[in-house]
Amino acid sequence: DVQLHLLAPTVISNPNDPRLRQKMKLNIVFVSPNLLIDEWKEPEPFTWASLLTLDGWRQRWDRYGVQTMRSLFTLSKCMQAIDGFSLRKLKVELADIYEQINRSVAKNDAKRVQENVTEKTFGVLRQEMQDRRKMGWQRVDWRLSKPVGKIELLQGRVMQADDEVFFAQLTCKITSKQALAAYSDEGG
Question: Rounded distance, CA 81 to CA 166, Å?
Fold first, then answer.
């Protein structure tokens, strides 16, 4: 879904109106479909005994073979369908979005946060912002201590919604070092 928010909404009924030729700034907001194809879970470590059982080998094949192929298939679908898509560009964009979201949370900018996360995540972050206010935190300063470190693709999933419509889910893990300072109503 794409919502277009016009900054200067005006109803113009005359198609020859000169205002139609004026440039308008569009703020495009992508709304998450709140669809989760496959929730990622931390895999349990294998035991040495699993090397000796057929079930243990099946689990290894599923984790290292099937799951890896699913992720590669998702990446290939993204590369086919999205002009200029690459995993490297995705990671750069993810680092930027990650920083924007954390800055917005620190500033209590709920609208900006909501534009960049799913409804479920927004609920958690909104509650965090409310809890900070209840604890008397007037202001929060947040920054990255170092640039975002490692961004690891944990899994990729793709689902065909229609003949020509695919939905891709890429689950990533972002490693970063952050600094946070909280100030109370008294300034300390």
Answer: 9
